[in-house]
Amino acid sequence: MEERLQKILARAGICSRRKAEEHIREGKVTIDGIVVTEMGIRVDPDVHHIEFEGKPLAVSEKKVYILLNKPKGYVTTMRDPQGRPIVTSLLKNMPERVFPVGRLDQDTEGALLLTNDGDFAQNILHPKFEINRTYLAIVAGRPSRELLLKLEQGIEIENRRTWPARIKVLTTKKRKTTVEIIIHEGRKRQVRKMFAAIGHTVLELKRTAYGRLKLGRLSSGKYRFLSKKEITLLFS
Ligand code: URA
After folding, report:
1. What is the pLDDT of residue 188?
2. 188 and 77: one domain?
3. Among 10-24, 120-134, 158-172, 174-188, which stretch is predicted with the lowest mean pLDDT?
4. Same domain, yes or no, for 178 and 75?
5. pLDDT exceeds 90 at position 18
6. Which residues have CB under 6 Å of ligand 1?
7. Ligand 1 test: best mutation among 107, 109, 189, most atoms within 8 Å of CB?
């Protein structure tokens, strides 16, 4: 992310922002080897090499944004006292310390975001952004249109009403139904609890998208880094 050079110097622990202006004016700062004396210049420290008095700035860790297809059986905590496999063990040669954004149950698979950017994680989880989460659920039996409408309108679980959801029936078999459900909350085991509340057990659950960011063809256990465009897509 681009920031004013003064701010970057200050954040790197060099000096205050005001002092940074002096240093810049005195020609002590270079960007990609070129002295800058101009004030207010905006730079992305992840992209450009900044030096102060000939020494590289110890800028903060590069921000990374990852989309993982979480397999069933993995937990989204950073440590598990019960010794179950943790999602971050699926990431190979990762110098940054990333953490999962929100949770996905051990028995649920699909799209999981991981990052080392705390602000980004907070925004994804904040209800104000109303980021949709799309799930594919296989539920036992054949829930009636009326019951699904109840879920769509909001249903009381644990003394709190859920926000409206969107539900589409994809296939109906004798003993099970596949539905797509879109919600923008992230309450614990929410989809399972919503269907349980109308008397239909969720047999399989997969998150297929966050907002307009789709899991696509990413195979189970695989991950990829998100582009800046995809990150903005999440909030659009
Ligand atoms: N709803 C659930 O029931 N489980 C999840 O992991 C996510 C949403």
Report:
1. 92
2. no
3. 10-24
4. no
5. no
6. 104-105, 108, 189-192, 205
7. 189
